Structures are given as structure tokens and as C-alpha cells.
């Protein structure tokens, strides 16, 4: 008998009583632990143990209840996936089939490390692979594994999923990124907030190793899914450029921003911060309140967060995942005494002006 059947409840219906699936338990947070943070991306299957240890200790110390953890692949998975063309399929090709197995073998090894570290810290964590629970169709999720995740949560366990090689109805197989998993789980489970932890402080206006890179402090997402930079270090005049490593098969930071925008569009605030740092730990513990926003992410920033960009066209804007165009400057934006450093992605508050402007494609 499955956990879902054991805990099912009886519900009145016009024809008597029937069993129904128990409601999904309240989910406090979904945390994505980036592969770039817990591995050395350029060195095959090499862990950043100190970062992994710090993140697990911090999750353990603020209570793992109502938490779903998803991790990326880093140097466990991206290399074989790229070498064997696993994202394109087909599985009828023996070369791709071997790559599929090698990719899974690698990423499940990393999952073992993450779960092992959490269990050592006293968290009842269990590894849950997307293969077998998730299916895609042309890389889009067609069958969600959220039910299995909810069953683990109901049982008091902390499910630990990972980006994976999965079966695809059109391509035979593909790679399902941890970032996309997070978005699907947010759609299905509606957590209070989502955190993406990675190896840099958040989303910058250009690759952060480039001179003069400026952290985007707040991105607001419109109901049509497009987004704009509402607050950035050094002002809002930004032209956002994102790059990914050559062997990255899932799109790097650009996919993360795209999926973060899709989560925020649901009304679920998203924080992007550095794994292993105090900012990352605060994001996981407090959600949007770490960034000085209200619990929904929609309230005005608290004093100390610094000036924000005005609503009269001074902020960069454009559809998620595309290059942003500069529209004006607000010198000093984001230079306040903010304690928290990271990127908050949240749904734009609907004002009378926006309604009048007729934001297209309003969706939930
Ligand atoms: N504009 C940008 N802002 C922030 N990071 C950027 C930008 N452009 C490129 N990057 C790079 O993106 C990387 C983070 O994205 P990536 O997808 O590799 O992270 P991850 O989710 O931690 O890893 P994985 O995909 O393996 O789980 C950083 O190492 C950073 O150097
Ligand atoms: C390469 C594999 C197996 C998964 C990729 O997941 P991501 O690192 O979260 O994008």
C-alpha cells in the first residue's frame, strides 16, 4: 500500500464517500543548490566539500521541515551529457544510451554526497531521482514527479532531487535541469519562497568575473512573464549579458533567470544568492524578508535597502532570458546600507496604471 493510500481521507460526494488524495503538505521553501557552487565545474567530479558542508549545516540548523532540495550537476553530469549528446537523444543510438547511463551514474554519485552530508548533519534526507518520476516532451515537463515529492514531505522526509537524464516522448531522452525541476515543483507545490544558491552573489549585468560587473538587486516580473531590473548596484542603467560554460548542457544562468521569472510570476518570491555565504543562509532561513521585502516579496523594501528605480521608465526591461536594453539611469540606486546581498525576483505589484496600460498575457 502506498503512502498516499495509507493517508488518504474520505470525502463526501453526491454518491456517498470516496477516497481522495491527501492535500500536499505546506511547503515552506524549495532550495536549488547549484552545481557550480558544490563542485569545481572545470574539474571532473570534484566536490567543493566546504561549501556543501556549510549549506547542509545551515539547512539543518534552521530546521529542514517543509523543505525540498534540488541540486544541479556541476562537474558531475554536464561533461558526459555534453560529450555523448544526451540532451538531443535518441536512445536508439548506442552511443547516446551509454552517455545517458554515464550521466546518471555521475549525477547520482553527487546526489549520494549531498544526501550523505545532510544525513550526517541530522536531517532525514532522501535522494529522489527524476528518472522514473518525470517525463518530458521535447524538453518540456509532460509528467511531473511532484506527487512523489509530496509523499516524502508527508512522511516527514526531506526529498533531495537533482538535474537528471530523463526519458523524452519526442527525443527519446534529454537533460532535465534542476532549475526547471524547481519551477515545476513550485507550480505544483506552491512553496512560500524559492532560493537558488550558486557560486556567485546573484545575477549581474555581465559575467561577474568581468571588470565593473554590477549586482542586480531586484528584478520584477510582469504578469506576461517579461521582467525588468528594478534595482541594481550603481544604478538601474543596465544592459544584462549572461554566458554559460562550453560544456554546460542546460543554459547556465540564463535558464536560471528564466525559470526564476516563471516562479515569481506565480506570486512565489525567488532569491538568488551565494551558496555557503551568510547571504545564502539568510535567504534560506528568511525568504524575501532577508532582502527587506514582505513575506510575499511584494511589499516595499525596508529602510536601508537603498533607493530603488522609479516607475517612470527608468529601469531596464525586456523579456526574460534576452538581452536587456538600457533606458535611463538612477545614480546611486541600491547603494544603501543593505545587509543582504543577492538578487530578489518578485512579481510586480499591480497598480492602476499597469491595468490601464493593459499588460498582455496575464496568467497565474
Ligand atoms: N550575468 C551573469 N550573472 C551571474 N552569473 C553569470 C552571468 N553570466 C555568466 N554567469 C556565470 O553563471 C554561473 C552560474 O550559473 P550556473 O548555471 O553555472 O550555476 P549553477 O546553477 O550553480 O550550476 P549547475 O547548472 O551546474 O547547477 C556563474 O559561475 C557565473 O560566472
Ligand atoms: C547534466 C545534468 C545531468 C543535469 C543538469 O542539471 P543542472 O546542473 O541543474 O542544469
UniProtKB/TrEMBL annotation:
Report the residue ranges that make up the Aspartate/glutamate/uridylate kinase domain in this protein: 28-273
Look up the EC number in the record and give it.
2.7.4.26
Q: Where is the segment annotated Disordered?
A: 1-21, 292-340
Q: Which residue windows does the record flag with biased composition (Low complexity)?
A: 292-306, 317-329
Q: Which UniProt keywords apply?
A: ATP-binding, Isoprene biosynthesis, Kinase, Nucleotide-binding, Transferase
Q: Please give the family membership noted in the entry.
A: Belongs to the isopentenyl phosphate kinase family.
Q: Which InterPro entries match?
A: AceGlu_kinase-like_sf (IPR036393), Asp/Glu/Uridylate_kinase (IPR001048), Fosfomycin_R_FomA-type (IPR024192)
Give an example GO biological process: terpenoid biosynthetic process
* Polar residues compositional bias, start-end: 1-10
Pfam families (alphabetical): AA_kinase (PF00696)
- Recorded source organism is Pleodorina starrii
Catalytic activity as recorded in UniProt = isopentenyl phosphate + ATP = isopentenyl diphosphate + ADP
Residue ranges of coiled coil: none
A GO cellular component annotation in the UniProt record: cytosol
Q: What class of enzyme is it?
A: transferase
A single GO molecular function term of this UniProt record = ATP binding
Name of protein:
Isopentenyl phosphate kinase
Among SUPFAM superfamilies, the record links this protein to: Carbamate kinase-like
